[in-house]
User: Fold these one by one.
Assistant:
Number 1:
Amino acid sequence: MTSTSIKVQGIVQGVGFRPYVYNLALQYNLKGYVNNDDRGVNILLQGFEEDINAFLKELETNPPILAKIDSLDVTQTQTETFYKTFEIIQSEQSNSKSTIISPDIAVCDDCIDDIHNSDNFRFKYALTNCTNCGPRYSIIKTVPYDRVNTSMNKFIMCEACGNEYIDPSNRRYHAQPVSCETCGPKIILLDNEDNEVCHDLCAIEQIATYIKAGNIVAIKGMGGFHIICDATNEHSVDELRIRKNRPDKPFAIMFKDINNLKEYAKLTHAEEEIILSKEKPITLVKRIKTPKLARNVAPNIDRIGVFLPYTPLHIILFEYLDNPIVATSANLSNEPIIRSKDELMDKLGNVVDYVLDFNRDIINACDDSVVQSINDEIFVMRNARGFAPTSIKLPKKVNKKILAIGANQKNTIALAFEDNLILSPHVGDLNSISSMDYFKRTIETFKRFYDFEPEVIICDKHPNYETTKWATYECSQKHLELVQVQHHYAHVLATMAEHNLDEKVLAFAFDGTGFGDDGKIWGGEVFIADKNEYERIYSLDYFKLLGSEKAVREPKRVALSLLFDTYSFEEVLSLDCPTVHHFNDSELKVMHTVWERELNAPYSSSIGRLFDAVASLAGIAHEQSYEGETGLKLEQLYDWHRAQAYEYEIVDGRIDIKKAIRAMVEDNESSVIATKFINMLSNIIVDISLQHESLPIILTGGVFQNKTLLELTSKRLEVLEKRYYYSSKVPINDAGIAVGQIYSQL
Ligand code: ZN
Ligand code: FE
């Protein structure tokens, strides 16, 4: 008997793939079966050829909403069995695990209807989900994705849920986290000493009352807890800033719905689509100046990070709330997001007044994703909930199992086996013991998911990165091959990987910090590169970071250093410049000595630090309390009607900006300085591109998160009909480094 066998790989489990296939087979009157194994989904079909072809066409063009098909292999086989029906059969176990694990997805419209419908048995049930939505990655212990392998294993389904679970025509067929009020996880409200206040719906109603009254609370989300307060209550937000010791860094804001959000932010069509998408990421948008939003939610910044409710619990919460809420990840600074009530009480018991918890455990923590719209397309800056784990098909198979562990800031890890690349969700900055624990736990989780033992580990070249130390130790202990890839070359490769490029490119790596091949701190690099090698053809002229790490927190130190490079000490003392005014005479003397004798003053070519310096010269930021602050502040002063730019020179391969520094001091007006500076950076890119007509252009590195710089440069390169690329799915910042590290081995 001739049968058609189909193997499907990609995100095909936990997304309603088998019932979809089942219903499709019935529709075309086909017999056979569908099953899952740990490589994906297998289908066997018997029937008329035209029906099989129609089935395949439908499968390829209209797969289930959450599925992502990476490969579809169709073969003709001979079978002994003649099937009389089409059936879904039990999961098969095999040896190699390569099923892609689905990210967590925001509650779908059908589930929202269920919780709003008083006749439905899930009316106001806060943990409602189905095959098209809800938790995946965050509740999985191991594959295959079956209920026993998730944190739902301790809940026994009631009859009503059980009937849906086994009915292939039901939306909850094999939805592993399916549950209801009767059989599922329960909501509980606690005070900050762990005493129960109330439970179930009362708990949500009550916590809304507390938020309205100005309290600071914690609420369990999908991949971790949020700390929440009323975003229109200045006093609550102030109190939160004091308790969390977070003076300025903007908070993300969750809104009841898109109409309410539009009272606070001016959205483009593209931004609205991103905010409403099934991933519901935090999206950076332009705020409307309204007195309704507490001033201190995002001090002195014209943009806000906004998102919509993405769990049924949030939806129900907003039935009792009208105002937007601050919803920030619950963590101690430099630590990962908290995923259990006990840890929350332990670490943040003094920050929050009440805690809303439920007993569906989070196995794998996962932060909210953060994105913006660049050139009207989504541009991911923090790749997490909704998007990660991210699977990328490689253009060819790797011959070894590779683990890439990224950089030290915005860490993510990536695995490569066969032609799969799996990128982990955002792990974060590795500046604490608990963040290193989270890093190691993430590696263990992914090794378990994919039955993966690396043969090669790739890390950065920075000798002091925790990741480098970990990789060196791990490789020496386990006798594995260690590969180190230069930071900015990895940025270039990450962007090449997203666009599947295998040719020579002209790459601009504009970044904060990265260890250079000469031991200096790079970050303003121009390379000619391909997958095998790179040549640094230009770089920003080195300047000294007075006080090293301190210079990152104090942009005025970088600015002063550039002034010392440009003028004599006596001239600096007499300048009418905000930077100089920000130091007293004895500080200026000390700084000059540091500069002159190069005491704790490493050399850097970082454009990120240059942004800091310019913000100080423009008088808008002499200190900064979070990364990217100076860029955001300069951007909001940018004037699209002003075409002038500062001048620069290229001398012996070094981009010399002393003329620009002099002109900035003379201009003495912040908006003019911001505009002419950003225009100069764009000129540098365009001018050098014109010298290398034949090469495609890569724009990469954290500096290109600057929407103004990237959109301006894109427009100009488009006018010139240049072929240019930047990465938008793989983060352009250090969170993409692991992808570039893998690509170096292809
Ligand atoms: Zn139930
Ligand atoms: Fe970087």
Number 2:
Amino acid sequence: MKDFIYSYPTKVYFGEKAAGKALPAELAKIGKTVMLAYGGGSVKRSGVYDEICGYLKDAGKEIVDFSGIMPNPTYKKVKEGAALAREKGVDFILAVGGGSVIDCCKIVAAQAVTDQDIWEMEFKDHVYPTDFLPMGAVVTASGTGAEMNNGAVITNEDTNEKAGVLGAYASFAVLDPAYTMSLPAKQVISGAFDTLSHSMETYLGSPRDITLSDEIAEAVMRNVIRNIRVLLTDMNNWEARSELMWASAMAENGILKIGKVTDFQAHQIEHQLGAYTDCNHGQGLAVIHPVLYRHMYKDGVKQFARMAEKVWEIPAEGKSQEELAKEGIQALADFIQEIGLPSTFTEMGITDKSVLKKVADTCNLTAGCCKKLSREEVLEILEECW
Ligand code: NZQ
Ligand code: ZN
């Protein structure tokens, strides 16, 4: 096991009416001017916006609205938020939304307190921000686990990069499954698949012998698969939605990563696909995963075989590790079809095939992947996804 230090800065308020417990307590600790950040308007339609404004007003806060944070948030939007935060003298940022809103706010929190350009600071100088406006998160779409980490995935339209930028941690996160109930079924499923992807990509990193983190990941993966299946017959099932919401946070709160170097090759490819096509994150992952895994499993056959047995519950008896690994990948591909996620880029509505080479040429090749992929092989993988 790799050495580690573990401590967590985010206090989680989970469950029904969690905002009513969290906000009065947390708002008492912060300054007067609160930036209320949200997306394209779902929070207004669902009533969440009015509820949160009520708590803010009860606490005597002045509200600065920062709206229109788009799925796959752009760096331009980050700059807009940072300028607004400075102009209005914002003391605290409250992100209300899914991964996109929360991620955008993590970097607004950093950019608002420095004159240096955060993108240049991180990607040119390799220096990471340490000062932030404080922030909190109210989750309305689960899957990314963004509420419990300080990594933000931001699209820089000038450079055609969708990259992980380090920003602020939320000091608290509100996870009320009721706030996700208005989410369209398609987004619920693609979000839950994102959680499965995070768990698989962590599990398939190194060390390649089983660790406690991996055994916890197996439980998270089984839980996600089981609860997605519950939702297929009962989309608003409270228990399943609750389990998936916590699984989402569990996959990205560092617990599964303890002592590990993660893989995350599928994510790196999907992020660049997102940079060029603005596609849905969970859907892109669903297409890439089985194809990528068919290309790499031989280099991590023991891990793939164990995942087949422990997660997909495929009997091992009489099978070689390779056979078992292949059956596990097929079970994943079948599951993706069963839950209505796409299996090809064309099914996702991507029409411009020329993006594939751009993605292959620009995506990060991760150190934690069991196979050292060449750019030619990534292009082959992407072409198989077509
Ligand atoms: O913008 P609004 O109107 O709010 O609509 C959103 C958006 O269109 C809608 N939505 C959210 N909550 C809703 C709702 N609609 C109805 N009812 C609700 N309660 O859902 C749509 C998608 O929202 P978005 O936040 O984009 O989805 P998600 O949570 O999947 O986040 C995706 C982003 O997170 C990044 C992805 O790359 C992508 O940019 N990721 C962040 C990670 C992290 N920080 O740890 C890890 C992930 O791997 C991922 O890369
Ligand atoms: Zn993801």
